[in-house]
Give the backbone structure.
Amino acid sequence: MKRIILLFICIALISTYVVGEGAVGYTYSKTEIDSILALSNITEAHQHHQEFVLSKYHTQTSTNKADTSASKFYTFDLTAAADSTLGTAVQILGTDDTPFIAGHTTFDFDKGKVIAVNSNVVYIVRISWGASAAAGQAVGNYTDTWVHGDASNPQLSNPTTFDISMPRLPVDTLVWAQISNPAGGQTMSFLFEAHEYD
């Protein structure tokens, strides 16, 4: 739906540019039109690029945390702090995890998938990137989303598959995950999906 709306905006602006004036008498410059088209291309690439499902690497090292083959299907397991704040950060991407395909230079996340929770409360999920979670968060390099857990049937958690909004990052960037919830000390296990770009 977002892509369709963005496409209509681009068409409207291009049409306006050809005519020369907007509905309120504003003349759009070619630079503005090009900027919106570039944004549209980025959105299109994100939606239609290769997608990789990542699980926890079965024998993690200091530089290898995730597995694109998901052959063992190990989950990333997070625990909220007892005082309802963010729990200990778990590294979910190391320097050897990207690129997934040689030659790609950037990546971003698409979605997370809840596999298990042990509480029927709202979880805040934070994804950070940088040398550490704290270092990334200190300069604003993080994104948050939420999940309302269903401990008896995790597939009914809302949403079970949650969006992860973030900028494209250079390959080799370290990525971290944390959770918090009002109950404190609760857990979540999840997998995630990512895209890569040339």
